[in-house]
Amino acid sequence: MAGERTVRLVERLRRVRGGDPWFDKRGLDTVRRRPVDDETIERRRRRQRYLGVAFVGLLVAAIWYPVLAGVGVVGCATAAVGVGAVRGRFYCNHLCPRGGLLDGYVRLFSRGKRTPDWFNHPLIRVVVAATAFGLLATGIRAAWRQGGSLGVPFLTMLAVSTLVAVGLGVVYHQRAWCQVCPAGTLSHAVHRIAEALGRDPAPRVEVDADACVDCGRCGTVCRQDINPGQYADREVTDHGDVFSWGGTEGATREADGVVDHGDCLQCSACVEECPTDALSFDAE
């Protein structure tokens, strides 16, 4: 039976690589050993929609009470960094209100395209973070001197960055902004530093090299433009990793079957998409 599934799978992959589109996934899906938990997926999406509504509510309320924007920005950034020390970018996928807006609503209008390689360069992150914090500091200083509300600079930054995030989400994929988000970058960097100091790494997706057939479907659903299958005991190129200064080409190294890219959101989308169950993720 297993031999027949393997034959069907190899034949299907041969046709796809020859130009046959993925219009019918049954040739791969029939070899799955475990079903996708649709209830868990829907529960996660429902939570993200609630977070998205809460985020929009915060923005609207902050127009009359700008201090709310300051509390929201500082609170979310602190939470992202705090959780990042223990769980990497777990906060970005599961708890971030703006992430909920992007996944819950912007996803419906997104073109679903990957961002250019240069967009993932660490230098782009530095420029975005420096610009955001520089403008915020300038705004706070001006508000302090003029006796205005210190919440206004936070509201301005939050509104402008959200417009940019939505625009990128529509042009590329819904989470394109998350690849350069200053709070996400800090979360990423703090976790790498915690690892270097001896703390256990965050839960990670693991790749079974024997089961992986390099179909690439996991990479098409990753919202951070990571290709998990590339980590199956072979050379891997880390695009966008804060500590991989490999230029637009990325940094190439040997992988050991663990997707240890610092921008992994731990969302399990790649695990759910894998047709051969080559990917696994233990959240504990």
UniProtKB/TrEMBL annotation:
Keywords: 4Fe-4S, Electron transport, Iron, Iron-sulfur, Membrane, Metal-binding, Transmembrane, Transmembrane helix, Transport. Residues 203-234, 255-284 form the 4Fe-4S ferredoxin-type domain. It comes from the Archaea. Gene3D superfamilies: 3.30.70.20. GO terms for molecular function: 4 iron, 4 sulfur cluster binding; metal ion binding; oxidoreductase activity. The keyword Calcium does not apply. One of its GO terms (cellular component) is plasma membrane. InterPro entries: 4Fe4S_Fe-S-bd, 4Fe4S_Fe_S_CS, Electron_Trans/Redox. The chain crosses the membrane at residues 50-81, 123-144, 151-172. This is 4Fe-4S binding protein. It comes from Halorubrum ejinorense.
